[in-house]
Amino acid sequence: MKDFFGQDIRAKGSTFTLARAEIYHALNSFHAHQEMELLYVRSGEGTFSIDNLSRRISSGTMILIGANVPHMFKFETNRYYDYAMKHGKTPTPLQLLTLHFDPNRLGNDFLSLPENTLLVNLLAAAKKGIIINEQTQPQIVYYLDQLENAPNYGQLPILLQLLNEIAEKEPLGNAQERASKKESKPFKKIDETRLTMIYLYTMDNFYKEIKLKDIADIVHMVPNAFCHYFRSRTGRSYFDFLIEVRIEHACKLLREGNNSVTSICTDSGFSNLSNFNRYFKLQTGQSPLAYRQSKRK
Predict the structure, then answer these.
(1) Of the candidates 120, 213, 118, 212, the residue with the CA atom closest to the CA atom of residue 168
(2) Biggest alpha carbon distance in the chain?
(3) Residue 66 half-sphere exposure, CB side, CA atoms within 13 Å?
(4) Which H or E run includes 188?
């Protein structure tokens, strides 16, 4: 059975939704929903944004996102500027496996059981997004396959095993420290719309100069108001975000191509090589050449 988004629904009449698709259900849009989301990118490349994190993602990436957490995926097949496209290369076909599950359905009494401490920590940690490491992924994929084929009465135990597997294997940080942190300002629909416009414009234009007035005009704000707004919603400045997007793109070029560092500096939106090298090392801990060598080994 397929839904409106062309997703092939693999579990029907359950407390969760498991779907295979060749297009993401929220196309190029910052959005949130009451369900947790586990996304496995079986094939494809793009950019993932959540909270104050933006990362290039590719085939084999698996990400867990908490309930009611605004996030955005922008995949290359949905046509935004990309080095491969610039040189006439075909984007990697997109194949996604997505699990949506509303943790509120478990109920507070169940979650407060001492056996569920790990699970509760996972639900809290997922609010920042968890990129699941390659060592954990095979077992998670195994559980997803089990969910597809299990009878209804056997699905919930498998789902709980899947979540606890992630909770046990992934570093979740300090639960007490998370509880002490101030909750970020709740997102409204207007925030999702504005951030979608900001992120899309940035991803389409990061390779050229972006002036503060240019990006502020996109959401009909004056520069000072825009700077305050972006920081209040993401926890960082817009130019920190822009630099991160550019460095992520540079990392992709260094991994996949043989162009010179000077050429990659320009293709990634930097006009000054020394600035490029400085920001690259700040973000990755390595020089561009050292990064390329480490990824080619």
Answers:
(1) 118
(2) 60
(3) 18
(4) none
